Amino acid sequence: MVDRKAARGPLAAAVRAAVGAGVDWVQVRDRELGGAALLEHAEEIAQAAREGARARGGSARVIVNRRIDVALAIGADGVQLGFDAADAGTARQLLGSDALIGVSCHATGEVPSAGDASYALLAKPSSRPPLGLAALARIAGELPVLAQGGIDAAGAKASVAAGAAGVAVTGAILMAPDPAAASASLRRALDCAARSGAPMESL
Q1: What predicted TM-score, i.e. pTM, was given to this entire model?
Q2: CATH code for 4-202?
Q3: Which of 50, 67, 92, 108 has the largest CB neighbor count within 10 A?
């Protein structure tokens, strides 16, 4: 998850390095920018992600936080919907059947059943204690769940073992002295988990 305030160095360079080292989803998130500035920022991050993917001979999906219009404008793969954004049904109508539609959840009871959403992002609010691995185990079901919140390589592997379909990180990569090395470590953990079960994604 891309956040300018959580980046130790130039953001586009960190995204390029992270994707080149194995990150396969990038979420553009910036609540301070709007209009043309947000569009320009999203385009820059999407371009960096594409360049990183080409460098490793792979691909990367780009998700835009909340803004369906920006996702459409830059040809993103989908959107991550927060509590103050459009609903999944509206996003699906606008973005099409192949789009990735994520919904944000702060508690296990908020995770919807499979429908217009493609996946759920489960993250605790800063005012609450961590949800824990037991919460992930309780909600493993139809809708894939990505775990978020202070996750490192060991946490990624544990989250997947508990039932997560993948993980979402910000500071673990963007605040690392070497974003590529941090991304590679997470990729190895997810690939190890995949060999034990299902393929994993990192966002």
Answers
A1: 0.85
A2: 3.20.20.70
A3: 67
